[in-house]
Amino acid sequence: MATTLTRDTVGGRPVDPAAPLLAVEDLRVEFRIDAGIVQAVNGLSYTLGRGETVAILGESGSGKSVSAQAVMGIVDSPPGFVTGGSVRFRGVELLDLAEPERRRVRGNRIAMIFQDALTALNLVFSVGWQIGEMFRIHRGVPRKQAQEKAIELMERVKIPSARERAGCYPHEFSGGMRQRVMIAMALSLDPEILIADEPTTALDVTVQAQIMSLLAELQQQTGMGLILITHDLGVVAEVADHLVVMYAGREVEKGPSLPVYHRPAHPYTMGLMDSLPRRDVHTERLRPIKGSPPDLLAIPSGCPFRPRCRFAADICAAKEPPLAAVSAGRVSACHFWEEVSRERSGD
Amino acid sequence: MSAPGTERPAAEVVLRVEHLVKHFPITRGIVFKRQVGTVQAVDDVSFELHRGETLGLVGESGCGKTTTARTILRLEKATGGHAWYKGQDIFTLSGKEMHELRREIQVIFQDPYASLNPRMTVGDIIAEGWRVHAGVMPKNRRRARIHELLELVGLNPDHINRYPHQFSGGQRQRIGVARALALEPSIVICDEPVSALDVSVQAQVVNLLEDLQDELGLSYLFIAHDLSVVRHICDRIAVMYLGKIVETGDEYQVYDGTAHPYTTALLSAVPIPDPAARNLGNRILLEGDVPSPANPPSGCRFRTRCWKAQGVCAEAEPELVDRGQGHPVACHFPQVEFDPAR
Amino acid sequence: MSDRRRPDQPVTTLEELEAEPIVGREGSLYADAWRQLRRRPMFIISGVLIMILALMAIWPSLFTRVDPRDCNLADSLLRPSGEHWFGTDVQGCDYFARTIWGARVSITIGVLVTAASTLIAVVLGSIAGYYGGIVDTIIARITDIWFAIPTILGGIVILRSIFSTRGLLQVSLVLIVLGWPTMLRLVRSAVMATKEMDYVDAARALGVRDFRIIRRHILPNAVAPVIVYATITVGVIISAEAALSFLGVGLQLPAISWGLMISVAQNRILTAPHLLLFPGAFLSVTVFTFILMGDALRDALDPRLR
To answer: Which candidate, A261, A228, A208, places its Cα nearest to that of A52?
Structure first.
């Protein structure tokens, strides 16, 4: 799809050809509410290369969704504020850009899809119209052509009978089909990065498989980077090249998928792996992580995972663990990461 | 939860569901409503639940598993069929008899945020069953018993006067379990009890349910869509699709010796949390969407998405019988051999 | 926590699972709501004003010693002064006293009508919303038809044709009869929404009977929008009574009502503006106060507190 926009600049500034597609460094987001200040994201860093998939894994309160919103620049502000760090898209600092330039990046170069397509789509307009809107508004394409492009996109995301269904409304589609519509809208302007925030959480597992397979195919065709936000360890294992595990707003472990899964270096990651039942083998007894994810208004001192950790010692309450280098490209925020990773090598 | 081949003594059947049917009418009209169609949510479902066993009812949305549970509890009125408990058909009981029966069959719901009345204290929530069933728990024993129940489910008994919104999701689910156990039922229907919980908390509740089952001799009807959890906790599993059961068996028969194509596709879609097991190449991707339950396909309901479908599939509905695999399958062309590679 | 490593234990021991209270939220949702409300200026202002108005209605003598009916024709149409704070009306009655006493009628009608309408609406609305089916259809259709009757117009027609004398009771009755449909729809939809909650199913599965389910599970959770609406309705009813009295079909002299006072004042707007000003101001402030209170309550009782 030809575009009149030049892709050598971002917000008017030239890109750095040597820079990764996205480089997030020490990102911090806080929420100021009646009850106090919540540090929703507390120092997150990761990079995304062309064609790569990075998964941000975490449970409720981990800050994973907020971090993605900060990258997109759609954090609800107030009460949310990006208070620190850097987000570089092809070398250009997004947090420095003025809002009009940020808006040109949003949707156009970096696109996002959400968990619930029904609330993300406008119910009073047909899907064809909504997808076409992307072209009409961002590229100035006339209505008829925009409609054609919309149908083309719907076919690309494998919506059956696309031409006939372009005039249908979101509520007339099933959950999986709506998700495809949202993906079509996100892809319409050939973004370089796609952020998917829990894209399949609300879907049945067979539909989830279809959607993930579609995303993989589209990623292969376009070479775009994918940031996948999820709590599902299975989905992450299937598609992610790298993962970042978040807990209570912090990055606790980061690295390439296979080593992290096979030899986790953080008790939280290990706890998650151990607590999962599997569909391919019999599990005798599950080993849960005790306790619950913390209330962000009352994060324990030192390491936030301490109350739930079986490796915890006094130092964990006193000192917040720094991000230790486990190996090339792997870090872990644990005082005892060596001990933790040794546990698995016995297997 | 035993290895394949070991025989378990045949335990007594506590619940037998026979040819259960639940149809919902689709109506039109403002003043006078006419029926224009039916949603065949549950269509001829039969199964048995044995004492001390966990029977899993699995399937995707719209398969009818939750409706089945609600109908057994008489939260919905069955359109047809029977549900035998202790020799009586649940659906033919009088109001008074059903009221008595409710003590014996209880339920745990999915959403920890919607299953507890936000205006009642934890103690009141747990004790409500005793208020409506006179004679089960004398008033002077109630407070002590609430404390016992809270401890049993792993909560602090001092919090008896707290309100649900002061607890986390996992803790609320435990309160729900305590409520269900207050009347000392023999069967507990678990409707997606861990689906809405954080991953790290799910295993806690699963373990709790297992421990309680061992301790109290409960029988569970476990409704879920998460096939990994089901494999772990269930002794036997029934797979549902569009209102019908397509396959039943124990953990090894259904998961390793899968016979029905839908079960095969369903299982292959579940991602394994191990990057080394990436099998996007071997995965079976079903085309399109589930057909509408208001207008299900003739013959075998799965035939419109099945790669094995042939002429007979449209003409004759396959019965749920053992076709040589050792467990019942409703398919004209089931997978016969045990495939350890899967 | 000082042991370096704990053996892997099953997770059901007590200490590990102590319920930590979520910071800042203690007590029932009403206690929470109260705490929130206390801090809002809108609530405080409207609350104080309502208390003053209630006092005015119950004990007017707290505000004025003068008898509003003690009128001296010689003092007719005096401007506000030190002796008569609000001046006097045509018949020489102290206008301040009349205005204060006018509050009694307004507040009484407002509260009475709202209470009665709400009661009818809650009873019928719960039945309609909970049972559904033919019962709901009948109640809902009757409500719809009733709803189509315009309030003021209908009020005028009924009051004119049916009643020969029109006192507090008669006007109240008419306003109740015309007012319940809106309230009922509100109750009905709130009940229908609450009925779908899992905790209602849980109660049914426990064997709780319908009446107790409605009383204990549905109404307490459905009542928030009704409380808000009822508060605002008090203001609306006060305004409606004033309108009817103004039009001459509401209360009759010698009743003291702001609406009547405004009606009498119309012809003398230019010569004696104080006749219109004071009851008009009091009426506006009263209505506004109740609406303000309703707004404050709506914010505090919002279920997203959960």
So the answer is: A228
Averages of pLDDT over runs of 10 residues in chain C (306 residues) are 31 37 54 79 90 89 81 82 82 86 88 92 93 89 87 83 81 86 90 93 94 92 88 90 86 84 85 87 91 86 56
Q: What is the CATH number of the domain that holds A55?
A: 3.40.50.300
Residue A279 lies in a domain: yes
| pLDDT tens column, C101-134 | 888 888 899 999 999 999 999 999 999 999 988 8
Question: Structural domain boundaries of chain C?
Answer: 57-305
Give the C-alpha distances (Å, rounded to integers) separating B54 from A298, B171, B230, C138: 39, 23, 9, 46
**Chain B contact set for C306 (CB, 8 A):** 113, 118, 165
Report the alpha-carbon distance of residue A154 to residue A52 in Å, rounded: 24
Please list, in sequence order, all residues whose beta carbon lies within 8 angstroms of the beta carbon of residue A200, skipping any fewer than 6 positions away.
A179, A207, A208, A211, A212, A230, A232, A235
Question: Which of B272, B286, B290 is the mutation pick for testing A, counting most A CBs within 10 A?
Answer: B272
Nearest residue on chain A to C21, alpha-carbon basis: A295
- In the prediction, which pLDDT does C26 show? 53
Q: Do C28 and B102 lie within an 8 Å CB cutoff?
A: no
State the total domains in chain A.
Answer: 1
Q: Which of B111, B113, B198 best probes binding to A when mutated, by most A CB atoms within 10 angstroms? A: B198
Instruction: Mark yes or no for CB contact A288/B289 under 8 Å.
Output: no
Instruction: List the subunits that have 3+ CB pairs under 8 angstroms with C.
Output: A, B
Enumerate long-range contacts of C205-209, CB under 8 Å, 24 or more apart: C205/B73, C205/B75, C205/B102, C205/B106, C205/B107, C206/B102, C206/B106, C206/B128, C206/B129, C206/B132, C206/B179, C206/B183, C207/B99, C207/B102, C207/B103, C207/B129, C207/B132, C207/B133, C208/B128, C208/B131, C208/B132, C209/B132
A312 to chain C, any CB pair closer than 8 A? The answer is yes
Q: Among A35, A307, A312, whose Cβ lies nearest the Cβ of C23? A: A35
The pLDDT of A165-173, averaged and rounded, is 90
For the segment A258-307, what is each residue's pLDDT rounded down to a tens digit? 999 999 999 999 999 999 999 888 999 999 998 888 888 888 889 999 99
Say yes or no for a CB contact (<8 Å) between A306 and C23: no
- State the nearest Cα–Cα gap between B126 and chain C, in angstroms: 10
As a whole number of angstroms, the distance between CA C285 and CA C274 comes to 16
Q: Chain A, 142-201: which have a CB under 8 Å from a chain B CB?
A: 160, 174-177
Here the ipTM equals: 0.87
* Nearest Cβ partner for A290 among C2, C16, C22: C16
Q: Which of C2, C8, C17 sits opposite A313 (nearest CB)?
A: C2
Residue A323 is assigned to a structural domain of this protein: yes
Within-domain flag for A110: no
Neighbouring residues of C142: CB distance < 8 A, sequence distance ≥ 6: none
Nearest to B163 among C12, C29, C212 (CB): C29
Nearest to C1 by CA among A300, B335, A227: A300
How far is the alpha carbon of A76 from chain B, nearest alpha carbon, in Å?
24
Would you say domain B13-104+187-195+220-329 falls under CATH 3.40.50.300? yes
- B to C CB pairs, distance under 8 Å: 109
In CATH, the number for domain C57-305 is 1.10.3720.10
* B149 and B182 Cβ atoms separated by less than 8 Å: yes
Confidence (pTM): 0.85
Q: Where are the domains of chain B?
A: 13-104+187-195+220-329
Q: Specify the amino acid at residue B310.
A: Q
H-assigned helices in A223-305: 233-239, 257-262, 267-275
CA C152/CA C159 separation, integer angstroms: 10
Q: What is the pLDDT of residue A71?
A: 94
In a domain, A249, yes or no: yes
